[in-house]
Each structure stands twice: as C-alpha cells, then as structure tokens.
Design brief:
By secondary structure, the chain is of the alpha+beta class. Helices cover about 35% and strands about 20% of the residues. It has a single domain, classed as Alpha-Beta Complex (DNA primase DNAg catalytic core, N-terminal domain), CATH 3.90.980. It has 4 helices and 6 strands; from the N terminus they run αααβαβββββ. Strand 2 and strand 3 form a beta hairpin. It starts with a helix and ends in a 23-residue tail after the last strand.
Length: about 140
C-alpha cells in the first residue's frame, strides 16, 4: 500500500506541480543529448520555486498520506505541524524513477545539468520522514 501511495504523491507532483523551464530543456538537449521527446518520456522537471516548496507540500498533505513518503517531513511552526519537502538545491533538475511495476518510487535530484552524481529525494532523520527507495538503473526503460 505504501508503494501505491508513494506513486500517487509523486505522480501528482510530476503532472500537476513540477514543470520544466525552456532554459533547462535547452541545457538538457545540449549537455545530455536528449531530444524533447526523450526529455518528456523521462519526466525531467526543473527545481520548484521557493513559494512552490512552501505551498505544495501543505496542499499534498491535505490530499495524501505523506507520513514516511521519502522527501516529505513535518516542521513544527508554533503550535502547528506543517508538511515540507526536503530539496537540497535551490536550482537544478528532478527526474522520477520507477520500480518493476512502473510505479514512481522517488526522484533523482541533479544540482544542474552537469551533475553526474544525483542525490535521491529523501527525508531521512526528519520528523515523519523516510529513507529513499533505492534507485535501480536496471528497471529503467529506454526513453
């Protein structure tokens, strides 16, 4: 059940929240050699704005169970618990990765297009956070 919830949360992020800027798209084409069709198939997205990082996790928390979904955690603000997302870079790229059932299990986070060692979206050690689901490149489909 956790796998399905995680997939729903990440799918919502991918299709309704995250976008890819034209500038990032051109950089990916130039640096990685992907076509726009391949970029779309991979689900590459630009890092969200600071405002999006504040608003969207709170909204997702109203729609989905974020407890133990890697990347999300609770921050105590006064007397309220507020859902946040743990993104290590102000700018960069996000790329979803899937399991053998084609469910999104997490996001690879690139600091920029030249980053060859992406981080995994995680909230390890944070309140109600979770370790990332390991990325398995052998489960990746060709773009």
């Amino acid at each position: 059940m956790k796998e399905v919830n995680r997939h729903l949360v990440y799918s919502y992020m991918l299709y309704y929240w995250l976008t890819l800027t034209e500038m990032d798209c051109r950089r990916i084409e130039r640096e990685w050699g992907f076509t726009r069709k391949e970029i779309c198939a991979l689900g590459l997205r630009s890092m969200p704005s600071d405002i999006q990082k504040l608003i969207v996790p709170a909204e997702l928390g109203k729609m989905f169970e974020l407890y133990r979904v890697p990347g999300f955690y609770v921050h105590i603000q006064g007397s309220e618990n507020v859902w946040k997302i743990n993104l290590p870079f102000k700018t960069g790229l996000l790329r979803p990765y899937r399991n053998g059932s084609d469910f999104i299990q997490g996001f690879l986070i690139y600091g920029d297009v030249r980053d060859r060692n992406p981080k995994l979206l995680n909230s390890t050690g944070l309140m109600y956070g979770a370790n990332p689901i390991p990325f398995n490149p052998y489960l990746e489909k060709a773009a």
